[in-house]
Amino acid sequence: MFKDAVFEITKERRHSYERIKYELTNAPVLILPDLELPFKLYIDAAYCQGLGAALHQRQIVDDEPREGVIFDISRKLKDSKARYGATQTEFLYLVWALERLHLSG
């Protein structure tokens, strides 16, 4: 924001703030995995910046289906790998994420 900018607290902004506050204080941050249910792996590589992945699972919570985060990882790309193309970077991260999410046993 600019130094002299006026920030007006509207009803819509107040509602958005309250919604965010509610979600952050009431929803579980991480859920325990249910090995009987399928998993979803979301990955994203920010061009020349870093990598991120999240392992999700859809479970029934309070009689409603809800997708929750089981595991979340990220890392900064090294200079040598920051020059990779988009496809190479996404594949690099897919391999990196799967190696870290592997369960032994």
Automatic annotation (TrEMBL):
InterPro entries: DNA/RNA_pol_sf (IPR043502), Retrovirus_Pol_polyprotein (IPR050951), RT_RNaseH_2 (IPR041577). The keyword S-adenosyl-L-methionine does not apply. Keywords: Multifunctional enzyme. The keyword Chaperone does not apply. Residues 10-102 form the Reverse transcriptase/retrotransposon-derived protein RNase H-like domain. Coiled coil: none annotated. PANTHER family: PROTEIN CBG26694, PROTEIN NYNRIN-LIKE. This is Reverse transcriptase/retrotransposon-derived protein RNase H-like domain-containing protein. It comes from Austropuccinia psidii MF-1. The lineage of its organism: Eukaryota, Fungi, Dikarya, Basidiomycota, Pucciniomycotina.
